[in-house]
Amino acid sequence: MNRPPTYEELLSGVSWPDAERELGYEPGGFLNIGWMCSDRICRLGLADKVALCWEDYQGNQKRYTFDDVRVLSNTVARFLCTLDIKPGERVCLFMDRVPELYIGLLGILKTGAVAQPLFSAFGDESLFVRLNDAGTAALITQKKHLPKVRKIRAQLPSLRDVIVADAEDLLLREGEFAFDMEAADRVDSFPVYPTTAESPSILHYTSGTTGQPKGAQHVHYSIISQYLTTKVVLDPHPEDIYWCNADPGWVTGTSYGIIGPWSNAATQVVLDSGFNAERWYQFIEKHRVTVWYSAPTAIRLLMKEGTELARHHDLSSLRHLASVGEPLNAQAVLWSQEAFGKPFHDTFWQTETGCIVVTNFPGMPIKAGSMGRPFPGITATVLNTKTYEPINQPGIAGLIALRPGWPSMIRGYWNNEAGFNKKFKNGWYLCGDRASIDADGYYWFMGRDDDVINTGGHLVGPFEIESALLEHQAVQESAAVAKPDPVNMEVVKAFVTLKPGYKPDADLELEIMNHIRKRLSPLAMPQEIEFVDSLPKTRSGKIVRRILRCREFNEPVGDLSTIMDD
Amino acid sequence: MDELSQVICDYVRREYLEEDDEREIAEDTRLISGGIVDSFSMVSLKRFLEKKYQIQIPDAAATPDAFDTVRSIVALVHQFQKVSAHA
User: Fold this and answer.
1) Residue in A272, A456, A514 closest to B40 by CB
2) Secondary structure element (H or E) that encloses residue B5, with its range
3) How confident is the model at residue B22 (pLDDT cuts 50, 70, 90)?
4) Domain parsing of chain A, residue ranges
5) H-type helices in A318-379, by residue range?
6) pLDDT tens digits for B53-69?
7) Angstrom distance (rounded) from CA A154 to CA A164
8) Which of A87, A104, A370, A375 can bridge A112 by disulfide, Cβ–Cβ 3.0-4.6 Å?
9) Which ipTM did the prediction report?
10) B10 touches chain A (CB under 8 A)
11) A6 - beta bridge partners?
């Protein structure tokens, strides 16, 4: 058919077993994401097809065919084996959006090790927490990020090897190794480790309300979901040029920035640059991008720049647009129709789901502001907050929940079985968000069900921010909550009481902001700090973030009686 | 380089680069699009400028474009210094 299928056609025509057949996977047999995204594509006769066209902010470009990706990922894998990296060991990728990150991930997976991509803007504390929890054995980075690693290395006894991808003439220390992927002897044949469906593949850290970030454990079987959802929702055609804005330090950047597109043999482009609207439009025009997977924060930044700037560029190549990370407001959907001639399709999912679960489809009418409908093969509902039973009436808000068992569902949180078990109630997996379902089956996002802050499409946990605030010598007590923001949806706001002798002023606010930014990350940095005399607490002294958050959002606090007695 | 540009370069170097990062921060160095300062970190740079030069930069003016180079930041500061002077 020439038109995209309708939702009803998808429900009857798309299934996980279809994806298994298309990928040539035999249940119980060999399954390795690295091999599937490179060797398999070459075996389909597409070795010479461009897999990756990379560009940096200065316009420097590199191009890689699928055969290049196959050989270079073998080369990375072989190097890791010379360092005695064993299957199951965690290998962190701590790099900007450079080719070594994309290809290196496949190389790690080919050894049977677990890839642990981390956002390169993380400060040393954020980096330490995640490496320490995972017991990471090796880390691949760039020289610009090496100082952060060196600062914490002595506290990480598991970290045997630090590999620098662009060392050049840098003086390396013991346990540090230079590895130039392009200059190394190419490895045409590598014995890919015989991973199977349930072999661990990727460890993605994600923030929650309580405690430190948790390592969401994915397995190689996740490719079934990522392949099929890419094919159906993002819809890359053989001749398409695909661009996913997301950094592979986050799950979007791996699920839909590496695994999804490459398992579908899509040519993708990557721009290693901070946001600049003019630059982005030039990039789309130059590479004739056809499928664009972006995020509401970026879209709102583009909106701020106006439609006029978009019209100065030939963006006629754009065929299909999608968005991820936070709810896409109706205004942004309508704006993209005006600016690009087509709407962004909102997609809803999270680190723990590994793939898109509720979404707008190419062949389904969009209701601007709606999350869309469940992907075929995903059983979704909204649950009553007290009984955890499905709500069958349209328009009533409840907890978004999924029936466990889709291929890319995480298999656990690293070293945190109790935390993982809390995600399930009454036979349902709880996403941690609230929504309502209308009479047509479309989902409408209502908000988080916990204290996690969703800023720029990334989840930030209040606990790690508050812990870092307490490290500052002036801070007595702290609370971190979400504050509404027109571009990022939410940003972090901190409430702080000071120790005696410290004066609340603009200098101290700036000092504390920079402290958090360097220790944790720019995302976690409070965009505002309010100095207060006291924080709202329960009888037992627990800080009630909900009161502070509701004030920021101008919402009623609701019944606090049970909370205050805690 | 004028004093304002120098102050901004020094602040960016001190706050956004690691100690042994040898990258040069010049007037036309791409700060945002070059990945040195990301859009979330812009707020702390904005606060610094507001405090240092006793100005108010409206959120609408604090765009990634306006903060992308030292030169454009200097222009922004001058713009709002004039606004303050006439207030």
Assistant:
1) A456
2) helix B3-16
3) confident
4) 7-379, 453-564
5) 330-340
6) 999 999 889 988 899 99
7) 18
8) A87
9) 0.86
10) no
11) none
Task: Please indicate if any CB of chain A lies within 8 Å of the CB of B39.
Answer: yes
Q: What is the distance in angstroms between the Cα of A177 and the nearest Cα belonging to chain B?
A: 19
Continuous H helices in A92-221: 99-111, 124-134, 146-153
DSSP letter assigned to residue A46: I
Q: Whats the size of chain B, residue-wise?
A: 87
CATH of the domain at B14: 1.10.1200.10
CB distance B33–A506 less than 8 Å? no
CB pair distance less than 8 Å for A522 and B30: no
Element containing residue A194 per DSSP (H, E): none
Residue A564 has a pLDDT of 64
pLDDT at A297: 87
**Which is nearest to A298 in space by CA: A334, A325, A319?**
A325
- Tell me the pTM: 0.90
Query: Residues of chain A whose pLDDT is less than 50?
Result: none
Amino acid at position A467, single letter:
S
Tell me whether residues A275 and B41 touch, CB distance under 8 A.
Answer: no
What is the average per-residue pLDDT within B36-61?
90
According to CATH, the superfamily of the domain at A7-379 is ANL, N-terminal domain (3.40.50.12780)
The model's pLDDT over A199-251, given as tens digits with 9 standing for 90+, comes to 999 999 998 878 889 999 999 999 999 999 999 999 999 999 999 999 999 99
Residue B80 lies in domain: 3-86
Q: How many Å apart are CA A56 and CA A274, to the nearest integer?
A: 10
Judged by CB atoms closer than 8 Å, whether chains meet at A276 and B64 is answered as yes
Q: Do B19 and A148 touch (CB under 8 A)?
A: no
